Amino acid sequence: MFTEQGPTVRELAVQALSSIEHGYDLLAPKFDHTPYRTPDRVLDAVTAEVRRLGPFDTGLDVCCGTGAGVGVLRRLCRERVVGVDFSAGMLAEARAAFPPEGERPAEQGPAEEAPAVDWVRADARSLPFAPAFDLALSFGAFGHFLPVERFGLFAEVYGSLRPGGRFVFPIGAPPPVGSRAYWTLLGFDAAMRVRNALWRPQFVMYYRTFRLGDVLEDLTRAGFTVRLMPLTELGRRPDGSPRARLVVATRE
Fold this sequence. Notes:
The protein is of the alpha/beta class. It has two domains: 1-36, no CATH class; 39-174 and 211-250, Vaccinia Virus protein VP39 (Rossmann fold, 3-Layer(aba) Sandwich). The chain is built from eight helices and seven strands. Helix 1 (9-16) runs antiparallel to helix 2. This is Class I SAM-dependent methyltransferase.
């Protein structure tokens, strides 16, 4: 499905009937060949904006998956980068994508001034870190957390940052009511609610529960000072507003 290298319909069905953790363990080998991986143009736009906020020494990719965000952090941080995820399968793919210097194939060449990367298997709702990071980010993972879990997640990130540390992530503008994208996301969320009402274990993945106003409120409750930066590289809507913004939450 999606590409010849991507998962089949049967594989996606098995994943959807699994728990989140096991589902991503199954999907991990083919994840980067699906549309679920954050597009490079989003990664590049975020990198360009966050670089203006630096410099940074240490970075944390929350729910790192196969490591797309770690690639961003390696371009922004000077000393150390950590990827954390609760899927062993996703972490295995991430490790393969970013091997230690001594294990890099000769054709890849040396990693020029790239910081060291560590991988940690843990639940983002209970991060095992002291306040050690200057920068934390996350891409595409928030739909896996119910709204009641969001404040706790943000509080865990807050506790992992040094004073002055930043927590950043992109957030897209909602599709216009009645548009094809609007009905697609509405239909997907409705199908997931029916699935979770009828089947255990649950697979939490919703597209319409991460509303900007609620997100800003929860970030503020967790102790962050928050501002928004337009990601103009990702274009504008017909009314002139940006299609996506970067949320910048600072632990003052």
